[in-house]
Amino acid sequence: MAPKLPPLRGLAPLCVILLLAVGVVTSRRPEPYYGRLIGHLTQYAHGIRGTVYAVDESTVFIKGFAYDGTGPDAYFWVGDSPQPSPEGTLVPYPEDYSSRDPPILSAHSNTDILLKLPAGKRLRDIKWISVWCRRFTVNFGDVFIPAGLDPPRPRVLPEFKRLAHGLRSGNISVLDAKTFYIPNLHYDGAGPDAYFWVGNGSEPNPFGTKVPNEMGSLNPLRGYQGEDIEIQLPAKLTAYDVDWLAVWCVEYRHNFGHVYIPKDLDVPPALGQTKITTSSTTSKTPHSATNNCKEILDKRLQVRWEIQGDQVQITLSARLRKEQYMAFGISGAEGRPAMLGADVVVAYWDSRANQPRVADYTITHLAQCDGERGVCPDQRLGGSNDAVLVTGRQRDGVTTITYRRPLAAAEPSRDREVLSSRSQSVIAAFGPLNSRSEANAHSFMDTTRHDVQLDFGAQSDNACIGLAELDELGPGAWPARVLSGVTNFTARIGPAGGRRGYTPITGHPSWGIAWYINDQLIPEIYVERGKTYTFYVEGGDDRTNPARYHPFYISDSSEGGFGQKKEEEQRKQRVFAGVAYDNEGYPFPTAVGRYCEWTHKSVDQANASPTFEQYVRTLQLECAPGDPATLVWTVAHETPDLLYYQCYTHNNLGWKIHVVDPGTAVPKPGDQKARINAAHRICPFSSTTFVLVITLLNMAVR
């Protein structure tokens, strides 16, 4: 008897309907689905039984197959004669046998069997399937193929719609109910939080589901240059359950491109028959005995893992400095990186003994261990060291240490359980060792700052490419660009420049694109009070495509995004150009023109480009039809000294506008001397101290 639900007091009828609708998720095809029914095996001898389905035109599935295994020379057998006969063709089972001759059929009891027809045969080429004894030419059981049988077959879809970040592909195929084949995939890899994404509705939206990439990983997508890949829907999700497949940026809720999945889909069931060779699968070479690997801490730490009975073996690899440790373990809270309450293992190379070391730590307080609380080795608090060293080495500047720890929490007050049934939050850090060779405090940049999920029960979750160099900040930022003495500007969209561009220059997060002013990445603009300036804006005019709709405006906000803010947040910004108000008092952007974007010729080459000039050579300008918008701005005398050019619909695309009085010395492009001299007149320090102060001030402004 179903439990009686309490009355839903205070809810409008519509809310009740929505609640009921959310609780019922149905597939467009009933499950389980095994393909088109062929029929039941007819038994003549040896207990043959089973139900036969057409999976696709060359594959059959036998549900609940039974055979007593006593026939001396029995095989699956197919043919096109009116009745089973010696003129048939042998169908090996299992298909991937290692002996010279196909194995004789063994005993089965209620076994599900997948049979692949040999020698290019298709179901339309045969009339029957039999269990046949070759030595005595006896038919133990058979089923006949119905006339006019139309097996399920893969469905070819259009290519990805091209919306952002150079995404494009060939025609996408739904190979079976869970598998998509994406040929000639191109994507610049510059989206900070992009994934394959499926869901329901008329357009891609935030209420979707991540789909693992071709390596089975849920890391953000890398760049692709014309690769053929195969991806599979997770868990019990099938192509019949979703309306679209997209490349979607989760953090910024943007659709880079998508393809719709038709309602009349009739593809093969996903029973393991789909095995294609793609440019992704041919490169899946294991890096070690276990093929689970994740790169964290800005790709500076590689974590490999494998469950071994009631233990998990973990290998940490990093470019460590002398007297530096690496730490990894279970977060103190699920869904976020929490040091307090975490259970971690600290691994390091003991330079005095020239040996690797591992220690089990408990974090009871965010302070140095005082013997009673803090970041302490379990043994120092009277507990046990549950981390057992397996091996370690130092080679080519990389320290690699392997250890083993129990899955269970050996000491519940100090340890946390390692789950093998689902993902869980993990944390990691680098830091210096103190005089006791214990972990000292680490910097903010040297710890996990966002939730990192790891599935310890995974079998082939490998997204490792290679460790970053020892420089923990990665490649250096390009020098800030300057535009001065100019009254006309173009404003276009382009890539943010990865770890050399927007974020290291501004200190703000980026979602992969930024303003290019006069084809320079977020230059600092100098304007004079009383003068008039013209901006020719090419940020997009298609309101239906947020990835290509970036109206330009000028504000005192270093973040921007005026149009996405609530009214109380809008009141905190002062807008100086690019926004008007309608008769009802609602704001709207005025600088809305055609879309022009600097796009990657291949994948993002920012990290490999020492200068911005070299980087620009890897880009190409693509413009949609139409005209730019014109924004004319006369700088009032009361305008503040510092403003920002921004995007009306998104945060963090622009940078600084310096407002000066007429006659004020300003930097010229490529010249920082004027800024330094001006600051030095205000703060006459020694040159060494002055450089330090300027650096600290720049960090504070960011």
TrEMBL record:
<dbReference type="InterPro" id="IPR005018">
    <property type="entry name" value="DOMON_domain"/>
</dbReference>
<keyword id="KW-0732">Signal</keyword>
<feature type="domain" description="DOMON">
    <location>
        <begin position="299"/>
        <end position="431"/>
    </location>
</feature>
<keyword id="KW-0677">Repeat</keyword>
<dbReference type="InterPro" id="IPR019545">
    <property type="entry name" value="DM13_domain"/>
</dbReference>
<dbReference type="Pfam" id="PF25489">
    <property type="entry name" value="At5g54830"/>
</dbReference>
<dbReference type="Pfam" id="PF03351">
    <property type="entry name" value="DOMON"/>
</dbReference>
<protein>
    <recommendedName>
        <fullName>Protein Skeletor</fullName>
    </recommendedName>
</protein>
<dbReference type="InterPro" id="IPR052126">
    <property type="entry name" value="Spindle_Org/Thrombomodulin"/>
</dbReference>
<feature type="domain" description="DM13">
    <location>
        <begin position="35"/>
        <end position="146"/>
    </location>
</feature>
<feature type="domain" description="DM13">
    <location>
        <begin position="158"/>
        <end position="262"/>
    </location>
</feature>
<feature type="signal peptide">
    <location>
        <begin position="1"/>
        <end position="27"/>
    </location>
</feature>
<dbReference type="InterPro" id="IPR045266">
    <property type="entry name" value="DOH_DOMON"/>
</dbReference>
<dbReference type="InterPro" id="IPR057443">
    <property type="entry name" value="At5g54830-like"/>
</dbReference>
<dbReference type="Pfam" id="PF10517">
    <property type="entry name" value="DM13"/>
</dbReference>
